[in-house]
Amino acid sequence: MIERYTRPEMGKIWNDQFKLETWLKIEILVCEARAEMGDIPKAELDEIKFKANFDLKRVLEIEETTKHDVIAFLTNVAEYVGPASRHIHYGMTSSDVLDSALACQMKAAGELLLKDLYDLKQVLKKRALEHKKTICVGRSHGIHAEAYSMGLKFALWYEEAKRNIERLQHAIKSVSTGKISGAVGTFEHLSPMVEEYVCTKLGLKPEPVATQVVQRDRHAEFLSVLAIIGSSLEKIAIEIRHLQRTEVLEAEEFFSKGQKGSSAMPHKRNPIVSERITGIARILRGNSVAALENVALWHERDISHSSVERVIIPDSCIALDYALGLTIKLVDKLVIYPENMLKNLNLTRGLIFSQTVLLKLTEKGMSREDAYQIVQVSAMKVWENTSKNLKDELSESIEVKKYLSQKEIDELFDPGKLLKNIDYIFSRSVEMN
User: Fold this and answer.
1) What angle do CA 115, 1, 232 make, to 5 degrees?
2) pLDDT tier at 4 (50, 70, 90 boundaries)?
């Protein structure tokens, strides 16, 4: 299912053909560096660059015997190159190729995910500005609190998208690290200048202190950031799922012509996209835990991380690319119902103004404890009797009338006044960027 919606560029990064092309590029770059140092005759370097190739099916066929992917690859390349292949992989270990190639793949995938995040940020900004003054009820613990702005929901997610961009930029920088330093990272058989040359050509930086592998805290950081981004998308999805409930219906996923919601109930319009995003976020978090388990390896290396990474890194990049694409479309086409928002705002019959009344009474000289008690008594009556509203209850309170006129009470029950600082909030967020 995910592959149907993932962009082709992301899928290509993680296919075997692209991986082996990157391996071959690394091996040739090492030969180039050694040739510049006089270790390989120019004629033989030219021969290697002209002849070097591989056939994926043949590599897999050889691997059936060798049970070693890099050796199978090198054997096939040697079949193309001939005697000059003795220079290929000189002084290197498999992880020099594997880790440097993986860094290239993660860097490329991360840059695609960054593009997704920038697109998400822009659509969130658009919807935030569109609904800046769309009044809805704010909820805490799922219970009505005070008036809120639908635009603020989008602005909140916009700010989180900005932070996720910064996190991913840092993670890409950290994981863009290669090594060509040999079996335990000591450059026993290769000059450090070879590593400098290869990493520069690949757009990587050398691992300052390596063992046989690039250290896995880098990969753990990358996958942890992908998991955080997934959790941010789930945050959006969960809010939309709640807002689409029949009893709420303040927002709804776009339902296209011909779409079906249920095999049994023709009336259903379900938040399936949001639910899908929620599920993918769980996968991303699980994969990040596996990446953290890979940080601790035996001595200068073992390969307990290898089989894990072959699954979690491609899967996380592909899954997040898919989830980001879903979220961008979800937000962009989200249907908003301002009338239902106002209806729901009034469901509690003025209770959302309880703090406003409390504070006004204290401004007039009443103690906070007394004001709280008086407003709470009236509020409990409204909770217990659906025919009552808070303004009427307060208007009948002898204690309240000692401090507030009817006109003052009426003025307190204006939801627009609760949003008087929305412009300020937007000025330091959405409207700044």
Assistant:
1) 45
2) very low
CA nearest neighbour of 14 among 341, 311, 285, 361? 311
In a domain, 408, yes or no: yes
Name the DSSP letter for residue 64: H
Per-residue pLDDT of 46-98, as tens digits, reads: 999 999 999 999 999 999 999 999 999 999 999 999 999 999 999 999 999 99
Q: Strands 335-336 and 251-252: what pairing?
A: antiparallel
- The residue written with tokens 């491609």 in the block is 314
The H-assigned helical ranges of 41-149 are: 42-51, 56-66, 69-81, 94-130
Q: Residue 295: which residues within 8 A CB-CB, separation 6 or more?
A: 215, 216, 217, 220
**How far, in Å, CA of 112 to CA of 172, rounded?**
11
- What is the per-residue pLDDT across 110-152, written as a single tens digit (0 to 9) for each? 999 999 999 999 999 999 999 999 999 999 999 999 889 999 9
Query: Which are the catalytic amino acids?
Result: 141, 262
Which CATH number belongs to the domain containing residue 364 in this structure? 1.10.40.30
* Rg of the chain in Å (alpha carbons): 31
Burial call 230-248: b when 16+ CB within 10 Å, e when fewer: bbbbbbbbbbbbebbeeeb
Query: Which range of residues forms the domain containing residue 394?
Result: 346-432
What CATH number is given to the structural domain containing 54? 1.20.200.10
What single-letter DSSP state applies at residue 39?
S
The overall pTM is greater than 0.90:
yes
The encoded tokens of residue 102 equal 């993986």
Residue range 207-251, pLDDT digits in tens: 999 998 999 999 999 999 999 999 999 999 999 999 999 999 999
